[in-house]
Amino acid sequence: MAIANATIRAVNALAARWAGEIRADGNSVFSAAGVWPLLAFLADGAGGAARAELADALGVPADQAAGAARELLAGMGAARGLDTALGLWTKRTLELREPWAAGLPAEAHGVLTADPGADRAALDAWAARRTGGLVEAMPVDVTDRTELVLASALALRTRWLRPFQAGGPLDTPHWPEGDVAALTRESGVLDRIGVADTPDGHVTELKVLGDNALDVHLLLGEQQMTPGQVLGAGVGLLARRHPVLPGSRLPYGAAGPGVRVERERSLTPDPPTLKVTAPAFRVTADHDLLERHELFGLTTARDQRHGHFPGISGTLPLAIGSAGQSAVARFGATGFEAGVVTAFGVVGAAGVPRLPWLVTTVRARFDRPFGFLAVHRHSRLVLAAGWVADPERLPEYPDDLEDREDFEDRAYSEDF
User: In 294-415, where does DSSP find H-type helix?
Assistant: First the structure.
């Protein structure tokens, strides 16, 4: 993935700021990598205060934004397991400035028919096709005033190098309503886990490696920490801003949030083991980006009383009419998948017997709300991030014996 470090830092910085807006009492998932290139193309065509605000949100100068966006999209598109797409739809009557239009792939350009119903169906079909059905609708308003829609799609899938085992319920007081579907795994690589010392508190990071260099980092902070602090710490760890004590060097006893290191007796001289328990989860979220207009540099651009994009069209004043992102992420026994569509609508204006050996076990339990980052391993680009406050539940166990046997045969046999 050939992307400039400055661009990766800018995208990850936006992810960290966005994480600060996430509430702790519900699930969420979002992708700064999905919105950043669209903001960059808008900045390239913006003028005045809107251009300055967009550049500030991007973290790069406006005259460099489009080039950085093209590089980002090309780099992500070349990564295994990651599919990206860019879409541009305009009314036939909207005349685009050639320099701006030439910066977008020609095959990305479609037409708005001025029939909102037909346009909505076409845009929804594009979103579903580009995410393999994970996102079924384009997160943007389409009206007869919509002159232009600019959208991106991102779909990532990875299978774990070492799968989890699907087990029974996760015993935890933090999710009292219903049984949480537990995933367990053992590994001899203790350093897949570490405890970071951050300004806001300690954070436990578990790296779950995918077979195509797309990994997921599970992040459990101290109980008083907010989602923004936990996810921000995860982004800081990617930039190596916080000291980390790896699993092989953790002290005995309570070693960090959700982590204990124990010495246990065994019949055999087993090597140290990392034992992980975490919930399966599926999280979805729809974000109205204009509700967070300051975060995305859209404060001026949303003012429909004036035009803000002279570099996009010289014949019609344009403003942002709507902006949204729909995202879904699923973490299961065999892998992880996520789909994101971002769009801008532009309008005119367990007693133990005595055993001879002592072995070391690091136990990690993600048994209360936690964060996650989907990361490209080599570039450290955050592709998706989220918060799990309500993980997947186990289905109810049937009372009838025949139904129960069928239930056990089917339990956890389905892959995504």
Answer: 401-410
Are 55 and 10 in contact, with CB atoms under 8 Å apart? no
Tell me if 248 sits within 8 A of 190, measured CB to CB: yes
Name the residue with tokens 């909207």: 94
Instruction: Report the half-sphere exposure of 10 (CA within 13 A, side-chain side).
Output: 25
**C-alpha–C-alpha distance, residues 205 and 218, integer Å:** 6
Q: Which residues contact 355 (CB under 8 A, 6 or more apart)?
A: 265, 266, 267
Judge contact between 328 and 134, C-beta under 8 A.
yes
Distance CA 75, CA 381 (A): 10
In a domain, 416, yes or no: no
| Residue 207: inside a domain | yes
- With residue 69 as reference, give the H or E element that holds it: helix 62-77
Render pLDDT for 267-296 as a digit per residue (tens, 0 to 9): 777 788 999 999 999 999 999 999 999 999
Q: Are 407 and 397 in contact (CB under 8 A)?
A: yes
pLDDT band at 72 (very low <50, low <70, confident <90, very high): very high
What count of Cα atoms within 13 Å lies in the side-chain half-sphere of residue 274? 23
The SS3 call for residue 282 is strand
Per-residue pLDDT tens over the stretch 342-389 = 999 999 974 444 556 777 888 899 888 989 989 999 999 999 899 999
- What is the domain extent for residue 225? 159-280+352-410
**pLDDT of amino acid 256:** 95
Q: Are residues 221 and 111 in the same domain?
A: no
Predicted confidence (pLDDT) per residue in 241-270, tens digit: 999 999 999 999 999 999 999 987 777 777
Q: Is 109 in the same domain as 145?
A: yes
